[in-house]
Amino acid sequence: MKEFDVAIIGGGPAGLGAAIYSGRAMLKTVLFDKFGTGGQLNSYEKIANYPGFFEDTPTYRLSESLLAHAQRFGAEIIYDEITSISDDGEWKVLKGLADSYKVRASIVATGVRYKNLGVEGEEGLRGRGVSYCATCDGPFFVGKDIVVVGGGDSALQEAQHLTQFGREVTIIHRRDEFRAYPDLREMVQKHPKIKCLMNSTVQSIEGKDFVEGIIIKNVVTGEISKMKTDAVFIFVGLQPNTEFLSGYADLDDYGYVKTGEDMSTSKKGVFAAGDIRIKDVRQVITAVSDGAIAAQSAWKYMSCRK
Ligand code: NAP
Question: According to the CATH classification, is domain 116-234 in 3.50.50.60?
């Protein structure tokens, strides 16, 4: 079994931030990811508010720099999906789909995924007009009608991105007010290609082979209507990728990891960083910062045990 000082699970900004600090602390560091690094950065086109990256820098520039930086400090990258962590005396055993690994400390940074809306037609038409990634799927809908569901930062930001492709983008939100940042709210109100349908929910998504339309309910009047559309992009919040930790480290009712200020979890030697933690602000900068703190804590944890 391959052995490391620190294993970082997840290659998004939190994981890469941890790898930079762990590598620099001369710890034998491995970072696991399923297919490639970048995490949620891969779902967005441009960086809006990461310090030093202004003028709409493409996100891949930041993720490539973070990866190169981690590798420069000696972090090894292994593409394997970790499915469980268990204790073996002083060691942690990480089981992956390809192999198993022995490590002294782990930093879990597996991030979040977009939640499903949970309506009829969503599952069957996924990839056929139903999408959770505007950067990945937007180019398929040039000149088409697009619906975006949700009222948070993701929905409004991605609606703006989709205007490059769609003829018209309609945001459907269940309340009469968006929860997104004020600048995004102002943008959607002024944007000539964006329409907002407030107090409305999507009841079902219809289509034979591809999305053809949706059924909408006005939650104030109860009125049901039909709307033609070619695509439904769903941004209704986040779900932490922590299923493999369930029963091992303490999670809250939504699956987010409970941590201390030093990113320690309820399991000694296991730290968590980034969007999977219980916290208020989920941004690239806070994820990278969590990663740095987690790596420092892992280093301290191992120093005390020598
Ligand atoms: P979010 O802030 O949790 O917003 C989810 C939205 O979906 C809310 O408007 C919510 O409505 C709506 N919603 C939830 N369940 C629904 C359902 N079943 N049916 C219809 N609508 C539903 O999620 P997010 O926008 O993905 O953002 C997540 C985090 O990432 C936030 O902390 C955000 O600030 C951050 N983020 C930041 C940026 C940026 O800074 N540029 C970009 C993207 C995300 P209600 O409002 O009625 O609850």
Answer: yes
